[in-house]
Structures are given as structure tokens and as C-alpha cells.
Protein 1
Amino acid sequence: MNIQASLTADGLVFRLSGEIDHYSVQSAFEFIESTLSETPAGAVALDFAEVSFMDTSGLALIIKTGKAVGADVGGLSVINANTRIRQILDVAGLSSAVLREDAQ
Amino acid sequence: MKEINKVRFEFLSRSVNESLARAYIAVFCAQADPTVDEVGDVKTAVSEAVTNAVVHAYPDTLGRVRVVARLFDDSSVEVVVRDWGVGIADVQKAREPLFTTGDDMRSGMGFTIMESFCDKIKVKSVPGKGTTITLRKSFSTKAGDGAAI
């Protein structure tokens, strides 16, 4: 899995690509955590447009990132999640908390 | 219901092997001509079962994880993921959504996702002896298909 960060007008966006599983999430979160520590507080989005696979390890990544971002600074959004990822978020009851309409 | 093909593969409980198991199962299931979504369902469920073995079965060492997959003539697949590790003390508790004995990179939703994406799952475990997870999924038969090659 690959992860890249960019600062946009809407806030900090982490673009994930490839497969999100137990093997890849730890290093992904370490990158997210260190980037957050170097970036001014604001809205954060996880962009799943290029994610080809995700299991529940991705849920842990979303939850942990959400906690790191905190609820009081615009919060965390999950964008461009495909049907399967939305399904997993639904099962976990996270959809309404983090899912946003697809954005560029 | 007649078995039409069977594969068995083993690997060590290294996390890097999770994607290997997914890919192997996806290619095997393709023999039954499932939809992309159906293969995705099985891949995700297998990923959860294999990850459980990788994370929990052998706490301070590496051990064997075996996957046996069978295809049947009714377009269904059965995947059995087995380890010989520490086992699950309370299977019912383990299957509760959000319950995990792992760290905070584990969501505790693995069994729930397996149940959501498969038609049937069975979990057998004996503490100290290991755990066997059996997943079953039926693929839709496509009406009006011509002869498959």
C-alpha cells in the first residue's frame, strides 16, 4: 500500500492506494501520525479512490486516525470509498460518522 | 453436492502472507465464474480469517497456517483456515462485534465481516491446540450462459 499526503484548500488529504490490510496499516498509521504532528490542525480526509482492497484493518486505521485528529478541528472524513468499503463501514456503524460525498 | 476441485496451501504466520492467501483464493474461486463482488466477499472473509491466525495464534513465534479450499458443482466454495496455535478461550465472546484481544490496530470486527460476507461460518477452537474457521459461500449461477471454455 502507498500513502501520500497533500495539503489542499479543504484541509489535509491522505491518498491511500493499493491494499489495506493488517500488514500495511501499521506503517500507514505511523506516516499519518507523523504528518499530523507536523501539520496545523484542521480538517483531515482519507481518500480511498485508489484502494483496491480493504479488510477490517482499514477500520482500525480509520478509527485510530479519527482519534488522532480529534473531533474538535473539523474532524476526519472518508472520501471516495467504493461500495465494498462503504459496506464495511456500515457493518461497523461508522458510515454516518466519517463518510462524505465523493469529492475530488 | 459434488466436489469438483480442491487446493491446499500452507504458509508461516507472517503478516506479509495475508495478501498471498487472498490472491490464491481469488484465483481458485475464479474457476467457478463468480461475479467480481462475490470474489471480493470471499477474499475479504479469508483475509479476516488468515489475519486472525497471524495475529493471535502464535504470540511469540511463527507457526503454520493452512488453507484448504474446495469448489462444488453447485457453484459454492468452502474455505477452511486452520492453525495449531493457542486457540480461542471463548469463541462466543470472540465473535462479538468490537471484541478483540489485539492491540488498537485491531477493530474487533473480523468475525462480523466474515459473517456478513459469507453464507455460513463455523469456528472450532481448542485452547492450546488451535483454531479452525470454515467459510462457505454460494456463487450465483448466471442464467443464459453459453458454453464456458
Protein 2
Amino acid sequence: MEQLMIELNPQTTQPVVQVKNLAKAYGSNVVLRDVSLSVAEGSVTAMIGPSGAGKSTVLRCMNLLEQPDSGEIVIDGHCINAGKKTSPKSLAALRRSAGMVFQHFNLFPHMTVLRNVSLPQERVLGCSREQANEKSMELLKRMGLADKADQYPSRCSGGQQQRIAIARALALGPRVMLFDEPTSALDPEVGVEVLEVMKELASTGMTMVVVTHEMAFAENVADELVVMADGGIIEKGHPGQILKDPQHERTRRFLRAVLER
Amino acid sequence: MEMLKAIAIGLPLTVLVTILALMIGTVVALPIVAGLRSRNRLIWLMSRGLVDLLRGIPPVVWLFMLYYGISIGAVRLSALQAGVLGLGVVAAAYLAEIFRGAISAVPKGQWEASSALGFHRATVWTRIVGPQTARAAIPAYTTFAIGLLKDSSIASTIGVSEIVFMSSQYARQSGSGILVFFVAAGIYILLSVPLGLLSRHLDVKMRKAVAR
């Protein structure tokens, strides 16, 4: 037992995601300046801030959907340095460790819900179709969508589509889930379904990074709150503390805008 | 009766020229699309130039050049070969543009989701972007195919004995003038209407399944 603890310990203290000195600019338009961030195993990090602050860009840099100009990204021990050329192999490893959920779901419209969730398992993990379908059905059940398996995504509501997208990402067994404004394209009532699933996911100990405008989620579910503005992190820490007593004037202004409307 | 017989003799060649040219066009269009999408400026420029060259010269001129102008050693292209090849490469240029447009109609999010899931490039093309491109291309592709069916009559100018060739030959021999061409026109309509129907049917069916 003691030995087990010792073996487990370094893993639990090691952050799952580490971002160091990330910077990105489009010409003279600086989107990110020197962003550093680390996400502990099993924690939920919420990123908030005005639009154009660079929240989504940080998230999209984490799995290299955007190429940062400089900086380093480590996910689950897979390191990528923006300065050096990344081999397709290490890129694949990094992306396999990170599951991504998009604002606009990005499900594959020409496949049934079940195929959407199963195909990545077959292609990326090399599962057989039976294995993949079994796992997919299990996940769809967990999302409350087992009866949608044979439908096409277009026949599902936005909230259902987003939950399918979450199932699709989870099916690959990621170490961290990245959510890019998962409820921003949804009606408030439908968004709740998605937030419920995310809460359940957080309670199972999934490491999550969530870019969001849902302040209640940030306050109640997140362990760490990151406030971004103008391409940089201006404040981070315990959500309750920041929301109650923001240190930075920019944070105060933003919170006034979102909370007191 | 003689009239119908003449047209019936021409019919298989019309269909053959159309199908072969369409096949050549489809296959040759693929590397051209790759070139048009290339980030290498030289490759892009060459592909662009090729498309503009193929499209810019009238098909009948291409056929004349291939039929009368080209001899490989002592071998000259037969009328059928020149017709199929000429119409085929011109088709490739148009189809390349159709495919290029269909590919860019696939939403960016599909590429991003594929990358985020860790699909290989080959998987993205065969399973994600390819099928969606094919669906987007169907209406324009069949429109082009119907156009090609009629343009196959250009091959009559170099002596491919397809419908129009046979019709004019019959018209000259029998002296019955314009009537045979009306019948030929009817045959073309009979050929192209089902194609259009099929295309619309496929399009509607797919739209129903995947409509957003």
C-alpha cells in the first residue's frame, strides 16, 4: 500500500497540462503574450475574460490547432516546443492525450451518431468495430443519448449534438478535456444539459480546461479560475476568491459586465 | 426506319465517348485539384495555368490538334482516341474547378475536429472531407456530365461516327433534311433527362439525411 502511494504520488503532483511562455501574433496584432499555465490532474480550470482576450487561442494552441509563435506545451508528458519542428508522431501523441469540444460541435454530418463516436476509436486507437460500438453505446447512454445512436446529427438538438461531441472526445480516453465555449452556441435552457454532463464529468475526476462565459459553472465547478484580457493572464486563483474580491481593475470591469446585467 | 437505324448505330459511340471522357476527366482532375490547393507557388501556378489553358481553347480545336497535329512516331491517334482524349482533358479542367469548390465548401470545423481527434491525413480525405466533397459536387458534376453528353457531338468533326455524325451522313444521303436532327435531339433529351433526375434524387436523399 505504501509503495503504491509512492508510485502514485509523482503522477498526481505532476500537472497534466503545462503551458510555458506561449506567444502568438498575426502580423502586428498580438493575440497572446507570454501566457503560462498549469493544470493539475483531476482539476477543472475555467478560463474567462472579454472576447478577444485570447482564451480560445490558448486552448487551441494546447492541441496545436493553432501554431504558437513561441513557447512550450506539455500535455501528459508529451512536449511540444513552438520553436522546433514538431514530428507528426509527437503531435499525434499530444492530440491523443487531449480531447477537444468545440463551440459549434463539429460533428460529422454524413455519419450517424454512433459512427461519429466509433470512427475515431477505430481509426486512432485501432479498435475493432464491435469494441468501438460497445464503448460508444456506453458513452451515449451516459450522456442520455442511447436512443439517438442511429440518427444523423442534424436530427439532434444543439444540446444533444454537443453531448455527442463530448462522447466522441471521451471515447479516445483523453487525459484532459478541452472545452472551447461549449455552451455559447446553445439556448440557455439547452446549455444546461451540456453543463450537467460537464459537472458529472468533473465529479469523476476528469481533468478539464473550460473556456466559458458561464459564470455559475466557473464559480461552482471550477477549482481554478483564469482571467484573461488583451492576450495575457491578468489573474488566476480560487474562483470564489476572484469573483468575490478581484484584484485587477480589468477583472472588476469584466465581472461587473457579466454579473450585473 | 432507316433514319432510326442510323441514329441507333451512332448511339453507342455517343455514350462511349461521354463515359470515357468523363472517366479520364475525373481521374486527371484529382492531381490538378491537388495542384490548385498546393501551397507551393510553382505547383499552384502550373496547375492554374494548365486549367486556364485547357479551358481557354475551344474543345473542337483541341480535337483537331490531337487528331491532325499529333503523331507519336508513325502512330497517329484514331478519331475515337483523339475525341475521347481531347474531351477528357478539357473535362479534367472543369471538373478540377468543380471539385476544388466542393472541397472548400466543407466547413473548417470538419478539418479541425479531424485534427483534434488525431486522424491521419488519409483518413480525413477518405472518411471525412472526401464524402462531404462528393455530396457537394454531385449537382455540378451531373450538370457537367449532361453538358459533356451533348459536347461529345463535337467528336463528329473529326469523324467519330456518333449520333450527330450518323445523322448528318443520313441527312446528306437521303435528302430528308432536317427531320433526322429532330430525332437526334429527342435521343439526347431521352439520355440526359434520366441523368438529371438521378442527380436530383441523390441530392435530395442526401440532403434529407444530413441537412443541418
